[in-house]
Backbone:
């Protein structure tokens, strides 16, 4: 089942489980959002069109994150006048996970789990830069005896790497140009 919804002056075709990026919506990450502006429903019973909206139809979603979008550059120029201005803008946007569609006697729900992981965190994990949750949970808990044993043992210091000799190469100091002596000043 799918639906066409209207939000932020735009229309989106959605299905349960889809992740969409829309203009900024109010709410915290993890909150539920409901859209009543359903323009069209499609499913097993066929397509239902609204005039302009379908009465009683709703689309449920979960707000994953609110972030800034891609940077847009604005460049203004008037030729032959030396006038050039560069500006930029990043629009706020919300990321939504569609969890359910209801209307026209049909229902469709998404059975998966809605993860609130941000896109920045997903990119960091893909590059191996962010710690994984499984690794922190997998570490065994320390017993009470272990910290005492560690406290009694002298702290092992890492061997310092031999320092390379510093070779300073200074440019020769520039001498100030010699002042011409006044004849009157030298003779007096």
Residues:
């Amino acid at each position: 089942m799918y639906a066409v919804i209207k939000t932020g002056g735009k229309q989106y075709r959605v299905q349960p489980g889809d992740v969409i990026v829309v203009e900024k919506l109010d709410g915290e990450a993890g909150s539920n959002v409901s859209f009543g502006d359903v323009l069209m429903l499609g499913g097993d019973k066929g397509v239902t069109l609204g005039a302009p909206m379908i009465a009683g139809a709703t689309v449920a979603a979960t707000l994953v994150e609110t972030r800034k979008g891609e940077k847009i550059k604005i460049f203004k120029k008037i030729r032959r006048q030396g006038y050039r201005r560069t500006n930029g803008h990043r629009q706020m946007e919300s990321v939504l996970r569609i969890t359910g569609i209801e209307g026209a006697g049909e229902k469709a729900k998404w059975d998966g789990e809605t993860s609130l992981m941000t896109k920045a965190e997903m990119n960091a994990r893909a590059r191996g830069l962010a710690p994984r949750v499984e690794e922190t949970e997998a570490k065994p808990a320390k017993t009470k005896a272990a910290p005492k044993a560690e406290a009694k043992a002298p702290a092992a210091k890492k061997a310092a790497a031999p320092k390379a000799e510093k070779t300073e190469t200074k440019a020769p100091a520039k001498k100030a140009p010699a002042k011409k002596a006044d004849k009157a000043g030298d003779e007096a």
Notes: The first strand starts at residue 2 and ends at 7.
